[in-house]
Amino acid sequence: MSHGTGYDLSVASYPFLSRAWIEAARSLRDEYAGRIPESPVQARVNVVVTDIPHGDQQTLDGHIDTSSGQTIIEDGHLEDAELTVTVDYPTARAAFVTRDQQQVMQAFLTGKILVDGDASKLLALQAGGPMVDGIDPAAIELYQRLDAMTSKED
Q1: Which of 13, 34, 121, 151 is 20 to 30 A off residue 26, Cα-Cα?
Q2: Concatenated DSSP letters for 24-70?
């Protein structure tokens, strides 16, 4: 089923943040390199996701780096990050898979999202991004494909 994107969205799906999901997300990122508008915010953020319910790891260390203009989300930590965000798996899933902003806000208010460093960078990243000046068709297509490959169940 193409959902108007021209791409078959009935692809294999993987548990969010599993090794297979990360590899598939890398492939998508590489495919869309240079097609997504540059991020208006420059930030280097380390991310720690705890309580992962599948696979051989309970915690995942990753990072978000927009300092080159492109948004790079990758595993492993940056040595010179401006901040570190620690979040549990259900909150990360709510932010990136179900896009439940109410659950994310509740998690922030109840201390399930911990920020160490320059929190203004996190707020800027949340407010900015590739769709600041309108919805970019390539960004929509990328997000739809990422969503299609993400298992809706853990």
Answers
A1: 121
A2: HHHHHHHHHTTTSPPPSS--EEEEEEE---STT-S-EEEEEE-TTSS
Question: pLDDT, tens digit, for every residue of 2-30?
Answer: 445 555 545 789 999 999 999 999 999 89
Inter-helix orientation angle 89-96/101-109, to 10°: 140
DSSP 135: -
Question: Which DSSP helix (H) or strand (E) runs through 116?
Answer: strand 113-117
End-to-end CA distance of the chain: 23
Q: The domain containing residue 111 runs over which residues?
A: 19-129
- Residue 69 within a domain: yes
Name every residue whose Cβ is closer than 8 Å to that of residue 106 and which is 6 or more positions away in sequence: none
CATH number, residue 25: 3.30.1050.10
In the chain, the number of structural domains is: 1
Write the single-letter amino acid at 69. G
